[in-house]
């Protein structure tokens, strides 16, 4: 966030968990779904997270979410 990042997309359940832990995210508000079972998470610090695990979402989900 110090470099201007406001959105982060992560794939993989364990990877997403590690990212959230490394960022020290204490929690957030569940937002609209980018795909079924894959909602945006909005943190109090202003970071928007899309944490995709398993087989959720279509093949292009991560590309579309990055836009």
Description:
Helices cover about 25% and strands about 35% of the residues. It has about 70 residues and is α+β, with helices and mostly antiparallel strands. The protein has one domain (about 5-65). It has a four-stranded mixed β-sheet. A hairpin with a 5-residue loop joins strand 3 and strand 4 (about 50). The longest helix has 11 residues, at about 15-25. The protein is globular. The two termini are about 15 Å apart.
Helical amount among residues, as a percent range? 25-40%
Shape: globular
Let me know the number of strands. 4
Order of strands side by side in the largest beta sheet? 1-4-3-2
Q: Averaged pLDDT, please?
A: 85
Helices and strands, with pairings:
Elements: E1 7-11, H1 13-23, E2 29-35, E3 38-42, E4 48-52, H2 61-66
Parallel strand pairs: 1-4
Antiparallel strand pairs: 2-3, 3-4
Give a summary of the structure in a few sentences:
The protein is of the alpha+beta class and about 70 residues long.
Keywords:
67 residues, alpha+beta, 4-stranded mixed beta sheet, 2 helices, 25% helix
